[in-house]
Write a structure and sequence with these properties.
The protein is mainly β and 584 residues long. It has 4 domains: 143 residues, Sandwich (Immunoglobulin-like), CATH 2.60.40; 176 residues, Sandwich (Immunoglobulin-like); 177 residues, Immunoglobulin-like (Sandwich); 43 residues. The protein has 7 helices and 31 strands. Strands 20, 21, 23, 25, 26, 27 and 29 form a 7-stranded mixed beta sheet that branches. Strand 1 and strand 2 form a beta hairpin. Helix 2 packs antiparallel against helix 7. The longest helix has 22 residues. The termini are far apart. The protein binds 2-acetamido-2-deoxy-beta-D-glucopyranose (11 copies) and copper (II) ion (CU). Copper (II) ion (CU) binds next to loops.
């Protein structure tokens, strides 16, 4: 890659900046890793190694990833944050823009990089990215907005000892009625607990912080150093000095840091886990993760900690994009209210508007492209696909009301959105309850929605395709906290043609690439995934039999925690439990 980068520089300096074809051959393979030094486990890696390589290219390049699935299960890759404008099928989420790639099959992802900034690539098949299939994607601008001497990527990751399948079995179980998520065994900066960074005195660094966690949210800071935020999720912002930043799962923040001129002291970088997210806090989980920042690794001491952890005053909604775009009034409002409830299958699920998302039999994008005028009706996408049909070029406002007592990061595929408003409780349309950000609001692709609050986000429906909108906590996505924006089906049918290779992937896995959510034609939806719903009038309903619910929950909750401890070889017999009863 270094060679390639210099080629691009030469091309640029001779006046004909030629876009490159940046090709990665990715055999998706099992291997083992022990990045936290506590437990060696099987992981999903690339070409027999873990971690997978960082992908690096320049805006305007064509990125090609030749995937050969050498696992014994399915896979699919999502390049997080790419608009995929005109190549919607390259987006990656199974059930939305593609069928899963079966074991032994190949598929090539190929698209033009129309954006620049910090992104990441990860599996979008069940919880597979938590097994290690995730890597940073750095797209350099042809002409970066800010100058710096060094460009360093710092992935922040949480780490589980049990496989995601084992985690899902425990999480999506009738023995887990409170929806207690498996808590990671550790977290680290870079790729393992021993990694560190060395600064050259006086130089300016761009640190690309990329939160590749499945669950955890971090606060990042460096003792003795000011951070200047310059990018969130690919959007350049005005330089904004802060002491620390937070990142929810899937968010990215670039900061500029100027190294000191003196080398008599070393410093620690901090990435503190947000403990509000965990229902239980294992007593051996290191919450305040540190990694050394070396100026002098021979003898010097470390400066005293200035870490404020969760006391951070960072607020991403006050950041100011360099490319100015004021908010425009919305044409259509999509009201999404979410909560967690035990459903008819006995499982505690996350859901929008009381309907858990169930993956349709045909990916929604393919339904959109194959169902003629029926693709304009939400019905054709299935009763539990949470499909919202958007008209081409409308300004869309999504209301996200969080009824839950936890924080959740929401990600929209295919777009960045403006974060135009927020407030306490549920947004009922009373605009005076909203704290507004209408003058060049901050834009990004993943937003934190704090407990019992709402946010308002807006985007222009100018990218025909089917775009997933979901909680980026993998456990919650798998349980049903998702919706699909069906953007301009009429225009999509004119502009988009599904490549043969994507049809072949469906066929190879025994799936169809045409038809409605039931894999039938027209509006005959019999057989479409459905029937996992709220329990009508049951004890789990709010305000009814709450006492009985709590007692049963407490008993079952303990059972769930014991069950979880059993699948973790290191945790045998030791658990600390704080049951989170608010969720009932
Ligand atoms: C970290 O360092 C320790 C001590 O030097 C070593 O035993 C361990 O293998 C290292 N772990 C990793 C993941 O590099
Ligand atoms: C991918 O796997 C195939 C088959 O085992 C092998 O021939 C090829 O060299 C591998 N490619 C890479 C980049 O490791
Ligand atoms: C790069 O951007 C800077 C600041 O926006 C501008 O001053 C400079 O002329 C640009 N350089 C090129 C080669 O476009
Ligand atoms: C990454 O995101 C997770 C989930 O939102 C969060 O708990 C964790 O603190 C984040 N990490 C950082 C360094 O911001
Ligand atoms: C380091 O030294 C340079 C040159 O003397 C000076 O301009 C700069 O302000 C100094 N930086 C710091 C962080 O003290
Ligand atoms: C310490 O510095 C030396 C020389 O710069 C370098 O080779 C070595 O990797 C450094 N060690 C650590 C732990 O950073
Ligand atoms: C982590 O840091 C916070 C803030 O400095 C502090 O309140 C807390 O006690 C620390 N926790 C641990 C486990 O060190
Ligand atoms: C779809 O609807 C348009 C406008 O209502 C109509 O002109 C067209 O014939 C319809 N196409 C089909 C295949 O029914
Ligand atoms: C959104 O839906 C919630 C839940 O049904 C409701 O309480 C709220 O008033 C709605 N908001 C708007 C603006 O319609
Ligand atoms: C709207 O909210 C404001 C501030 O909370 C409140 O004073 C006002 O009565 C509300 N208006 C309506 C129509 O509910
Ligand atoms: C997609 O491309 C069209 C032009 O073909 C452009 O008007 C639109 O703004 C783009 N949308 C996104 C989200 O990139
Ligand atoms: Cu969530």
């Amino acid at each position: 890659m270094r060679l390639l980068a210099s080629c691009i520089l030469i091309a640029a300096s001779t006046g004909f900046a030629q876009a490159a074809r940046v090709v990665y051959d990715w055999n998706i393979t099992y291997t083992t890793a022990n990045p936290d030094n506590l437990f060696e486990r099987q992981v999903v890696g690339v070409n027999g190694k873990w971690p997978p390589p960082t992908i690096e290219a320049t805006q305007g390049d064509t990125l090609v990833i030749n995937v050969d699935n050498q696992l014994d299960t399915f896979t699919a890759l999502h390049t997080h944050g790419m608009f995929q404008n005109g190549t919607a099928w390259m987006d990656g989420p199974v059930g939305v823009t593609q069928c899963p790639i079966p074991a032994g099959q190949k598929l090539t992802y190929e698209f033009t990089l129309q954006q620049h900034g910090s992104y990441w690539i990860h599996s979008h098949y069940m919880g597979q990215y938590m097994d290690g299939l995730r890597a940073p994607v750095v797209i350099h601008a042809k002409n970066e907005t800010y100058k710096y001497d060094y460009d360093v990527t710092i992935p922040l990751q949480d780490w589980y000892h049990a496989s995601s399948n084992e985690g899902l079995k425990v999480f999506l179980s009738e023995w887990n009625p409170t929806g207690a998520e498996p808590v990671p065994q550790s977290g680290f900066m870079f790729n393992n607990v021993n990694d560190s960074l060395s600064f050259v005195p006086g130089k300016t660094y761009r640190l690309r912080l990329i939160n590749m966690s499945g669950f955890s949210m971090f606060y990042f800071s460096i003792d003795g150093h000011e951070l200047e935020v310059i990018e969130i999720d690919g959007i350049d912002t005005q330089r904004t000095p802060v002491q620390s930043v937070y990142l929810t799962a899937a968010q990215r923040v670039s900061v500029l840091v100027t190294a000191k001129n003196t080398t008599d002291t070393n410093y620690y970088m901090h990435a503190d886990l947000n403990t509000d997210m965990y229902d239980t806090i294992p007593d051996d989980l290191i919450l305040n993760i540190t990694a050394p920042l070396w100026y002098n690794n021979q003898s010097a001491n470390f400066a005293a900690s200035e870490d404020v952890g969760m006391g951070s005053t960072f607020d991403d909604m006050t950041l100011v994009p360099v490319d100015i775009q004021s908010a425009a009034p919305f044409d259509k409002q999509v009201n999404l209210t979410f909560d967690f409830q035990v459903t008819t299958d006995g499982i505690n699920r996350g859901m929008f508007n009381e309907i858990p998302y169930l993956s349709p039999k045909v990916p929604s994008l393919y339904t959109m492209l194959s169902e003629g005028n029926d693709s304009l009706s939400e019905e054709v996408y299935g009763p539990q696909t949470m499909a919202f049909v958007l008209n081409h070029l409308d300004m869309i406002e999504i209301i996200v009301n969080n009824l839950d007592a936890g924080h959740h990061p929401f990600h929209l595929h295919g777009h960045v959105f403006q974060m135009v408003g927020r407030g306490e409780g549920v947004y009922d349309g009373n605009t005076s309850k909203v704290e507004w950000f209408l003058d060049n609001p901050a834009r990004r692709d993943t937003i934190l929605v704090p407990a019992e609050t709402f946010v308002l986000i807006r985007f222009r429906a100018d990218n025909p395709g089917a775009w997933f909108f979901h909680c980026h906590i993998e456990w919650h996505l798998e349980s049903g906290l998702a919706a699909v924006m069906i953007e301009a089906p009429d225009v999509a049918q004119q502009r988009l043609t599904l490549p043969q290779a994507f049809k072949d992937v469906c066929t190879a896995g025994g799936n169809l690439y045409k038809g409605n959510a039931a894999a039938k034609s027209g509006l005959d939806l019999s057989g479409a995934p459905s029937g996992i719903t709220l329990i009508p009038d049951a004890f789990t309903a709010k305000g009814k039999g709450a006492m009985a619910g709590c007692i049963i929950a407490a008993l079952l909750g303990i059972a769930a925690i014991v069950t979880y401890s059993r699948i973790d070889p290191l945790k045998e017999g030791r658990t600390i439990a704080i049951a989170k009863s608010e969720k009932l």
